Every structure is written in C-alpha cells, then in structure tokens.
TrEMBL record:
GO molecular function: electron transfer activity; FMN binding; metal ion binding; oxidoreductase activity
Organism, as annotated: Atribacter laminatus
InterPro entries: Flavodoxin/NO_synth, Flavoprotein-like_sf, Metallo-B-lactamas, ODP_dom, RibonucZ/Hydroxyglut_hydro, Rubredoxin-O_OxRdtase
SUPFAM superfamilies xrefs: Flavoproteins, Metallo-hydrolase/oxidoreductase
Flavodoxin-like domain span: 256-393
Name listed for the protein in its UniProt record: Anaerobic nitric oxide reductase flavorubredoxin
Length: 406
C-alpha cells in the first residue's frame, strides 16, 4: 500500500505483515495480519516516528522513498524498543548515519543492547519539544504502555498523538487506514480487544495513568503503531481503552465465557445442556473448546466478561491439560475478579476440581457452583446441567451478588 498523507507534511509510511503467523511468537495473526504503522514528518527537518519489523525492510524503505530520500532523514523517533517497531533501525542508521535517534531515557541502553548503536542517540525528557520547522513534536513518557521505556509523540500543530502500542489492534490495513474510511470498524474493535487482552492488559494501571496524563492534551487524531488511524472519532478507541483498563479492577461486563474440553464427548454433552440453561436467561455467551481455539481469542472473552464456566474432565488425577494451560495464561495475564462455576466428567475417582481450585486461588476467581459426574451424563444430570447454567447466568446478570451455592 503506498504512503498516505494524513495532514500536510505528515504521511503514514507503514507496512502490512501478512506472513507472520504468531505475533510476539505467541498470538495468532495468520488470518488477520497486522500493520506496522510508521510516520514521516516532512518539514524543514525530516523525522520518522517508529519503524517496522526487520522482515519488511525493502517495503519500508520503498515507502519512505516515495516521499523523501531516506538518506536525508534528520530524526528517528523511537517511541518503543520492541523489534516490530525498531527492526529496520540498523539499516536506517547505515543509510542515514547523520540522523539523530530521539528516545526516552530508559530506551538509550536498550538501543545499545538490541542494535549495538551508541552514537547520535539523544535522550528526550517528559514534555520536551523538538522543532522541525513549522511543526513541533512533543514527547510524553508513558512507561509500561507497553515496556518501561515507552513514550508517545505529539505533533502540536495538527494535534496528532503517535501513541505506539496504545490504541492499536491486530488486523492488517485493508486499503483504508482511517476510521472514517473503514467499512468494518467492528473487525478492528474486536481485534483491538484481543490485542489489549493479549498484550496490554497486564499493564492496565499504567494505561489508565497514561490516559489521565494525556487528558489535558487536545488530540484530534490518534495514530497508533498497529491498525487504524482514528481521525473522525478518536474518542471511540480512547473510551474502549479506558473501559478495558478498568476491567483489571472490576469483573467486566455481564456475560459468560464458557470454556470446555472433552476427550470422548461426556463433558461436551453436559456443556450443551449448560449452554441451553444460560441461553434461557438472555445472557451473552461465548463458547470455546480450549483444545482447539487458541488462548489468544479466549483471553479477549475472559477479559471482558464477568462470568466464566469451566467444563473439563479429570485427566491423570488432575484437570484436563489444555484447560489448565488456558487458566495458567489467565493467571499470567492478571485476569481477575470473575465469578466461576465448574462441571466435568470423571472415570473413577475424579481430581480435576482439586487442581482447578489451586488455580482459582491464584486467579482470585470466586467459585459459585460445581457439578461433577461419573462417565456419561444421565438424563437427570443433563437436567441438572441446564439448571446449573441458568442459575449461574442469572447470578451473573444480577451483578453476581448471590452467595456461593456449590
Ligand atoms: C488419558 C486419560 C486419563 C484419565 N485419567 C483419569 C483419572 O485420573 N481419574 C478419573 O477419575 N478419570 C480419568 N479418566 C477418565 C475420564 O475422566 C472419563 O473418561 C471422562 O468421562 C472423560 O470425559 P470426556 O468424555 O468429556 O473427555 C481418564 C481418561 C483418559 C483417557
């Protein structure tokens, strides 16, 4: 996709990545892709704000060359050191050795550690400004959104906030780079939530701090490093980020994530009854077979919904491994404050619940109900399952004030 003018003298010079299967080596993007948004300010001085992953080197330099000769770049602004934004730095340094790298105090050592670059690195302080001619860039430290060295860059005349990972999403750009040109905002909002739950959620307290810190700045356009540029309605993505960051402190919106795993269909049979019971209440419901659906997608649901139902059989005296894995990732990502219920089949002595309770203690999720059964579910157990789902969903919908009953 060729460079796109955002405002006079300011261009998007990003690249789409359709070949990386796992973002950060972990999160699937085979279907969705991702963009590495980079920006060129072509004033008396020329500045590039954030770069791209090294595999996109050819395309990236072609994009710069559409606007300026890459050797004439004066400033390279690194908001964040993660290699999806800095991977082409060594090449750019070779092409434009005179260009000054501007970065946060914490990023200086990291530039040396990641790329062996020490000269022409200039640290900027919180609030510091750099005049490029008509346009002025101002820097704001936003630590841990997403790494400790992260900062954001604000162009004062056009009021554009180059926010790096904050307000970003998975999803390659499909021709439209602006929110007002995009015919499928829902796709990017969904991918923004998945991106948030996978990558940013752990730092929700710092996200809220950053939003609060920047609230006094008159922002017209949010230009993140991944996904759409929000120029018509930046408040949409700001409000979503605020809401998602708050979910680190509260259970989330009323609704249920139903996770299940099954070897021979016994637990799955009960899952259908449980889902039937839930659906009678009108509660929102997302169902995931945890052995087949990647945790990346499950985390988005877990992060945003207040209730979780776990259906899994006993496996070698413990919880079924793929369920234990999902919950382990939820522990690492700090998914907390949920109400939870468990059901599952066992063959002779059970044991899944024992291990689950250890994980729930780490998650600080509150167990509301359990339903364990031996072998296949009888008609009676299926009826109990339906009731179990209905009762739990009603509790979730009513704000989850009911006491523990399992
Ligand atoms: C590899 C394997 C290990 C199992 N380990 C246990 C166990 O330790 N304790 C137990 O009570 N049942 C155990 N079972 C039996 C299952 O829990 C039982 O078959 C259950 O009905 C399976 O539910 P599903 O059809 O939903 O997978 C095991 C089954 C398999 C295949």
């Amino acid at each position: 996709m060729p460079a796109v003018e955002i405002r006079n003298k300011i261009h998007w010079i990003g690249v789409n990545d359709h070949t990386t299967d796992l973002f950060e080596g972990l999160w699937p993007i085979t279907q969705e892709g991702v963009s590495y948004n980079s920006y060129l300010v072509n004033d008396q001085k020329k500045a590039i704000i954030d770069l791209a992953k090294s595999i996109k080197v050819d395309e990236f330099f072609k994009r710069i060359a559409e606007i300026v000769n890459p050797s004439q770049v004066d400033y390279i602004i690194l908001n964040h050191m993660e290699p999806d934004h800095t991977g082409v730095l060594r090449v750019l340094r070779k092409i434009a050795p005179q260009a000054k790298i501007l970065c946060s105090p914490k990023a200086k050592d990291m530039i040396q550690a990641f790329y062996g670059i020490t000269d022409q690195v200039q640290v900027v302080q919180d609030g510091e400004e750099v005049q490029l001619g008509e346009l002025t860039l101002q820097f704001f430290m936003t630590p841990f959104v997403h790494w400790p060295e992260t900062m954001m860059t604000f162009e004062k005349i056009n009021r554009i906030l180059f926010s790096c990972d904050a307000f970003g999403s998975y999803g390659a750009l499909r021709g439209a780079i602006f929110d007002d040109e995009c015919t499928d905002l829902e796709f990017y909002q969904k991918q923004a939530l998945r991106y948030y739950a996978n990558i940013v959620a752990k730092f929700s307290a710092q996200v809220l701090k950053a939003i609060e810190k920047l609230s006094g700045i008159p922002v017209d356009i949010i230009a993140p490093s991944h996904g759409l540029i929000w120029r018509k309605n930046p408040s949409i993505i700001i409000d979503l980020y605020k809401k998602w960051a708050e979910y680190a402190k509260i259970p989330g919106e009323p609704g249920i994530t139903l996770l299940y795993a099954t070897m021979y269909g016994n637990t799955e049979a009960l899952m259908d009854s449980v889902a039937q019971g839930i659906s009678q209440t009108g509660s929102s419901l997302e169902i995931f077979d945890v052995s087949r659906i990647h945790t990346s997608y499950i985390l988005a649901s877990l992060w945003s919904k207040s209730g979780v139902i776990i259906g899994a059989p006993t496996y070698e005296n413990e919880l079924f491994p793929s369920m234990a894995h999902v919950l382990d990732i939820a522990i690492r990502k700090g998914v907390q404050h949920k109400k939870v219920a468990y059901f599952g089949s066992y063959g002779w002595a059970g044991g899944a619940l024992r291990e689950l309770e250890k994980q729930l203690a780490l998650l600080k999720w509150q167990m509301a109900d359990t339903l364990v059964f031996q072998g296949g579910p009888s008609q009676e157990v299926l009826a109990q399952g339906k009731e179990f789902g209905r009762k739990f969903a009603e509790m979730v919908l009513s704000g989850m004030n009911s006491e523990k009953n399992g």
